[in-house]
Amino acid sequence: MSNHVVILGGAYAGITAMQKLSNTPGLNITLIDQHPYHFLQTEGYELIASNTPFEDTIVSLPALCANYDNVTFKHRRIVSVDNQNKIVHLEHEELVYDTLIIALGSVTKFFNCSKNVHNYSSGAKSLRGALKLNQFFQDELYKRLESNKKSKESFNIIVGGAGLSGVEIAAGMQEFFNRYYASNSLCCAKLQIHLIASRETVLNGMHENIIKSASNRLEELGVTLHTQSRLKKIEAHTALLEDGTDINFDFMIFAGGTTTAPCLRDIALEQSPNGQFVVDAYLRAVDNSSIYIVGDAAALCDKKGRALPPTAQTARQSGKLAAQNVLRSYQNKKLKKSDLKIKGIAIALGGKYAVIDLGAVRLNGYPAYLIKKLIERFYKWPLWWKASQGFKKINTCDI
After folding, report:
1. Is there a single domain that holds both residue 252 and residue 227?
2. pLDDT band at residue 124 using 50, 70 and 90 as cut-offs
3. Exposure check for the chain: N or C terminus, fewer CB within 10 A?
4. What is the pLDDT of residue 399?
């Protein structure tokens, strides 16, 4: 095997793979991302609700990569991938790879409707999307502070999709506004969030106790839940559901699905019906053994062939395994088969309230919130420390 490994994407899966491969003699690693930071998406919903500061949700990729002698970071937009000739096309540059790890995740899949809806809607998977939502809500609060008439108007938000993202966004925003209105006598109108669930419950497929705890919390916060409902049509600021219900809204958040990153749409690799790339037991593309695909971009399954949800947990596990197999291939060793599994789910439900499913143990409320925050800190604090060390190296080189 040759020695240039290119990693596309500097999020959970890409960073895990990079760190596993770093400082390996004979390997040169190039990590590419269109952003110079790793966005901690697990905390993005708290950023939307103004419950965490902006700087607590990012890790500098140039500083992090500067820790490793054999890692180069490129802050570039990926244009396309030519997997036949092993070339990654960047803006104003081309890179030839020997092994490619695709860790670009996914992007929000918007409802197929009038393009005008994008003027008053957003996804929440990116830092830009989270900041856009946060700023939008801050602006609405400001308008209500300044205008007595505006403060008495109702405000409706639709969250399309009642999976992990949709539930966390709806709970976080409703709790934030409830808290704000309770403490600010200038604002008397209430925010109303409509959560659209295509199935009979939120968090479909999870343990019934988790579903019950989350549903009770949403009801307690005042979120209006529309179950077994799908968006049929959107006109101006009115959403029509398939059951005939009309919902007037001021803003819409898409959290019901994801799709492939635009730069990968023309790549000649097999994809599943929902747009994820099909991988073999070793996380390689089924029709190209020099390409590993990890995280949300891959159709990941557990040992029994059951589809796994796109979470930071599965992204990190797949990134680690792909890196291990790259090293094993480099060392002419037998590759390891995938044995990915969900070890637990932690769901933020607004304020200092969460639910956690660890299999044998299930918790909700403040104790679950504390455990969730602890898990997040165990992940990001080592990255922050490594980035701080890398920052010192960068500054030393500049002197």
Report:
1. yes
2. low
3. C
4. 46
Considering only 72-81, 109-118, 197-206, which range has the smallest mean pLDDT? Answer: 109-118
C-alpha dist (Å) from residue 214 to 162, 201, 346, 348: 11, 10, 11, 9
Give the residue from 342, 85, 63, 323 showing the smallest Cα distance to 207. 342
Residues whose CB is less than 8 angstroms from the CB of residue 245 and which lie 6 or more positions away in sequence, other chains included: 226, 229
DSSP 163: S
The token duo for 158 is 């639709």
Any idea what DSSP says for residue 5? E
Query: What pLDDT is recorded for position 87?
Result: 94
Report in angstroms the alpha-carbon separations of 98 from 20, 29, 95, 117.
Answer: 17, 11, 10, 42
Whether 375 maps to a domain, the answer reads no
Element (H, E) at 195: strand 191-196
- Specify the number of domains making up the chain: 2
Give me the domain span that covers residue 303. 4-34+76-106+260-342
**Residue 267 contacts residue 80 (beta carbons within 8 Å):** yes
pLDDT at 395: 75
Is 387 part of any domain? Answer: no
Q: Which residues contact 192 (CB under 8 A, 6 or more apart)?
A: 154, 155, 156, 157, 222, 224
Provide the H-helix boundaries in the chain: 12-21, 44-48, 61-65, 127-146, 148-151, 164-183, 208-221, 312-330, 366-398
CATH of the domain at 9: 3.50.50.60
Strand partners, 258: 108
Q: Is there a single domain that holds both residue 238 and residue 300?
A: no
Last residue of a domain, which of 228, 256, 284? 256
Query: What is the bridge-based pairing of β-strands 58-60 and 37-39?
Result: antiparallel
Report the C-alpha gap between 79 and 22 in whole angstroms. 26
What pTM, to 2 d.p., does this model score? 0.89
Using the CB atoms, write b or e for 276-285: b if 16+ within 10 Å.
bbebeebbbb
Domain boundary residue, one of 256, 283, 300 = 256
Residues whose CB falls within 8 Å of the CB of residue 139, separated by 6 or more in sequence, listed in order: none
